[in-house]
Specification:
Elements: E1 5-9, H1 14-25, E2 30-34, H2 42-47, E3 55-58, E4 61-64, H3 66-76, H4 86-111, H5 115-135, H6 149-168, H7 177-187, H8 190-193, H9 200-211
Parallel strand pairs: 1-2
Antiparallel strand pairs: 1-3, 3-4
Helix pairs in contact: 1-3, 1-6, 4-5, 4-6
The structure holds glutathione.
Length: about 220
């Protein structure tokens, strides 16, 4: 029997959200504990090797890194969300990792205090999204019509792209119709909607304002 699972979370973290999506999609029973990453408790620093969330406590054991947590949860709750073909599965893993860079660039774009850096990051994001568009199946999900692990990994990015569009009018998916369709399919799933606390859109806006970067001036209230 699997010991009790406890996910250590920060409400705004897209990497935690990836893990929550898999846990919810698989109907796994788990506890969630929120911490403030700006003021992390001592017990968190003691168990998180990188000082990062997500961390998944599995009984007395600790897992870190969202991709590892997603794969562990997937493996203990068959059927798997991974494609069966080893080559497709490996390619999906590579594109999941590619998505990390987009998330980091988005954070830099909305928080940078330097207008040139902000513009550079936006360009980088749009370029990476075009690369992703080029390898997408064109279906509702990345590989076609089945929801796979890669879809869980990208949903948090699309949620933030949607927040940015609602807050500023900037549509980062303007030139990527396949990604727009993918995003629409993902964001209407209940387990994706329920993978963040209700107040996350307001928190996201508050974070942009608090960081007081150049992008904050583009927000329309
Ligand atoms: N590669 C990690 C990235 C996790 C990550 O960047 N988490 C951020 C919050 S969204 C964090 O904990 N930052 C605190 C820090 O780096 O000190 C993963 O996929 O789990």
């Amino acid at each position: 029997m699997t010991p009790k699972l406890e996910l250590i979370s920060f409400k705004l973290c897209p990497f935690v959200q990836r893990a929550v999506i898999v846990l919810k999609q698989k109907n796994v029973d788990f506890d969630i504990t929120y911490i403030d990453l700006n003021n992390p408790p001592e017990w968190f620093e003691a168990i998180s090797p990188l000082g990062q969330v997500p961390v998944l406590k599995v009984g007395d054991e600790v897992l870190f890194e969202s991709a590892v947590i997603q794969e562990y949860v997937d493996e203990i709750t068959p059927p798997s969300l991974q494609p069966e073909d080893p080559l497709i599965k490996a390619k999906n893993r590579a594109w999941i990792s590619f998505g990390n860079d987009i998330l980091f660039a988005m954070h830099a774009m909305i928080t940078s205090k330097d207008g040139e850096v902000m513009a550079e990051k936006q360009k980088m994001i749009e370029h990476k999204l075009a690369q992703l568009e080029a390898v997408h199946s064109g279906g509702n999900f990345f590989n076609g019509e089945a929801f796979n692990m890669i879809d869980a990994a990208y949903a948090p990015m699309f949620m933030r792209i949607d927040f940015i569009k609602n807050l500023s009018g900037l549509d980062l998916l303007e030139h990527t119709p396949k990604l727009t369709k993918w995003s629409d399919s993902l964001l209407k799933l209940d387990f994706v909607k329920q993978s963040v606390v209700e107040e996350v859109p307001q928190m996201y806006c508050g974070m942009i304002k608090n960081m007081d970067g150049v992008f904050a001036s583009r927000l329309c209230d």
